[in-house]
Amino acid sequence: MADVALAFAVLDIGRPRDLGFVILAREIPIVVLLLAGGVWSDRLPRHLVLVSTDGVRGAAQAVTAALLVTGSASVLSVALLQTLYGSAAAFARPAYQGLVPQVVKSADLQQANALVGLSNSTVSIAGPAIGAAIVATSQPGWALAADALTFAVSALLLMRIDLPRTLRITGRSMLADFRDGWNEFVSRSWLVAIIIAFGLFQLTYFPALLVLGPYVAKHDLGGAGAWGTILSLEAAGALVGGVLALRVRFSRPLIATMLLVLPAGIVLVLLGLSAPLWSIAGTAFMSGALFALDGAVWFSTLQEKIPEHAISRVSSFDWFGSVALNPIG
Fold first, then answer.
1. Distance between CA atoms of 82 and 248, rounded to whole angstroms?
2. pLDDT higher than 90, residue 137
3. Distance CA 304, CA 253 (A)
4. Engineered SS bond to 296: which of 113, 118, 218, 315, CB 3.0-4.6 Å?
5. CB within 8 A of 323, min separation 6: which ones?
């Protein structure tokens, strides 16, 4: 709901370049703070880091919703709140990646990541459609208010997790922890190569999709309903991909992670040509399925090969390499 609502909220109060500005405001703090987030997620109980970040992100969405509903929102205020949202997200991502192998056996990691993907996909199928309906019948602020509520529910659930105690080295500086994480990262050439590839992919794909996609939908495909349809079918595809990830295994998982993302480029081509909605949505469905399978394979490989005490720091390098070029995009 939030992606649709935020896009059309900004387009209502600004211009297409303002949407790029708002997304930039969210992405820059992720890039700046992500590595620090990895260090702290290896130093503190990871589920408590996630509880805190859920609180911050929920508050940011709640205030944004209030400004939109009362007609007080401006592009600048929305951008500043997205900066707060992105700052919390920088700590949440590495904490989450480190949490999964703490609660799941190594042999079950791919199935666990697939189930998490299935959970996300299941609620994401209806989310864009509901968000589009709210935008069409009332205003985007109410969709963002609902999103804020989901962060509160998430925080309450995470507080109930009882993790086993793990060994943490105390008395070290953040710089020393960072340096150790960096050494874990650069000692694996396969990890460096893949993250460079991810970074180049994110430079081109997601910025174009998230900024130009809603613009094309509004002017050439019929509006918010069309964009909601595309995102919903992409999520439906991810549901199929999650089911596949429960069963499919690759003997060369790293090669698979590169090949599975190729159909995403077709989505951009079709959007650029203002192709019929059915063709864009159908290709988004296929792309979503392969993305979900790709994510389960990649995260499982990373969690299996990196030691538990360093996984959050290494995953922060993974995320950093993937999103560092997003602001340029």
1. 37
2. no
3. 12
4. 113
5. 27, 30, 31, 34, 199, 202
Burial class (CB in 10 A: 0-12, 13-18, 19+), 102: middle
Q: How far apart are CA 174 and CA 106, in angstroms?
A: 28
**Helix then strand then coil, % of the chain, to nearest 5:** 85, 0, 15
What does the pLDDT read at residue 86? 93
Helix and strand numbers, DSSP H then E, in the chain: 14, 0
Q: What is the pLDDT of residues 88-117, one digit of tens each?
A: 998 988 888 888 888 888 888 888 888 888
Quote the pTM value. 0.70
E strand or H helix at 47: helix 46-69
Largest CA distance in the chain: 60
Q: Could you tell me the residue ranges of all domains in the chain?
A: 2-164+172-323
Amino acid at 54: D
CATH number for region 2-164+172-323:
1.20.1250.20
CA 100 to chain centre: 16
Residues 139 and 6 sit within 8 Å (Cβ to Cβ): no
pLDDT digits (tens, 9 = 90+) for 146-191: 899 999 999 999 988 887 666 555 556 778 888 888 888 888 999 9
Residue with tokens 């666990």: 112
Tokens of 302: 């990373």
C-alpha to C-alpha distance for 262 and 283, rounded to whole angstroms = 11
Among 291, 241, 233, 234, CA closest to 262 = 291
**What three-state secondary structure class fits 326?**
coil
Tokens of 215: 């613009």
Residues 6-32: tens digit of each pLDDT: 888 888 888 878 888 898 899 889 888
- 244 touches 293 (CB < 8 A): yes
Backbone angles phi, psi at 159, to 5 degrees: -65, -20
Residue 194 in contact with residue 200, Cβ under 8 Å? no
Rounded to an integer, what distance in angstroms lies between the CA atom of residue 27 and that of residue 89?
Answer: 9
State both tokens at 288.
């979503």
| Cα atoms in the Cβ-side hemisphere of radius 13 Å centred on 254 | 11
